Amino acid sequence: MILLARWRPRVPLEASPQTGMLLKHGERILSSATSVFDGKGVKIFMKISRIHWHYGTRSHAPELTAGYYNTRYRDGYLSIAQMLARHGAIFNFTCIEMRDHEHAQDALCAPEKLVKQVAFATASAQVPLAGENAIPRYDEYAHEQILQASSLDVDGSTFDREMCAFTYLRMNPSLFHPENWRRFVGFVKKMNEGKGKEKEDGEWVEEEEKAVKMAVNDPTQQITVQLYFSSRLLTAVNGQ
Which of 34, 116, 126, 167 gives 20 to 30 Å between its CA and that of 43? Predict the structure, then answer.
């Protein structure tokens, strides 16, 4: 005997009293934040958690459970982006370093597709998009994915924009392993070059060598080097 079943919500999600509660909460928080920081030159970011598991299903149950009304037929991230647009806030999203195939197939994870959807939603709502990596990664494979995602070339064509900021997680002792550090320096340099900018081949050579020696040979200088490259990375993604 073969049983066939089709997923259909028992109650239309639009009729659920929980629908919209997350957005209403966001509206309250943003209203309070803007009332405090308006006119003071402070940029407000709202971090939106990535829920990429079971993204490949029709129901998107994990997202719905978290309050993201995102299904095959409704873009739940567009409504979040539109909320941020009303308050002049920035959409901060994570899992920028992840690829779909890096996860177990039975989990139907799709972080790349999720980032693509968020990029389109923020473009439609005209909201700046910022990003960060979800887990510590020090390999070039992850760095390449971050570079690709931060360029917002999500569909093979080129958006006339880039991510406005990127937060690199996490600066711990593993980052200062000589090989990890050299890869990180190269990554920051590429972020600094940006999309459509001329490469500055000789600009960083002396600074790279000095920073690596400081970090590897003198642990007391690691915080100084961290702050220096953090500022370079922030400057890079802001295009300054």
Answer: 116
Phi-psi region of 7 (alpha: psi -120 to 50; beta: other; left: phi over 0): beta
Does residue 4 lie within any of the structural domains? no
Looking at residue 171, its pLDDT comes to 81
Could you give the CA distance from residue 163 to residue 155 in angstroms, rounded to a whole number?
15
Range of the domain at 19: 15-239
In sequence order, the β-bridge partners of residue 45 are 90
Inter-axis angle of helices 111-125 and 76-87, to 10 degrees?
40
Q: pLDDT of 57-66, one tens digit each?
A: 988 989 988 8
Give the sign of the dihedral formed by CA 202, CA 199, CA 148, CA 192: positive
**CATH number of the domain where residue 36 is located:** 3.20.20.80
CA–CA separation, 161 and 122 (whole Å): 11
Tens digit of each residue's pLDDT (9 = 90 or more) over 95-116: 999 999 999 888 999 999 999 9
- Number of folded domains that form the chain: 1
User: In degrees rounded to 5, what are phi and psi of residue 49?
Assistant: -70, 145
Q: In this structure, is residue 3 part of a structural domain?
A: no
What's 44's DSSP letter? P
The mean predicted confidence, pLDDT, of the chain is 80
The residues that bridge with 166 in the sheet, in sequence order, are 131
Classified as helix, coil or strand, 74 is: strand
Which pTM was predicted? 0.75
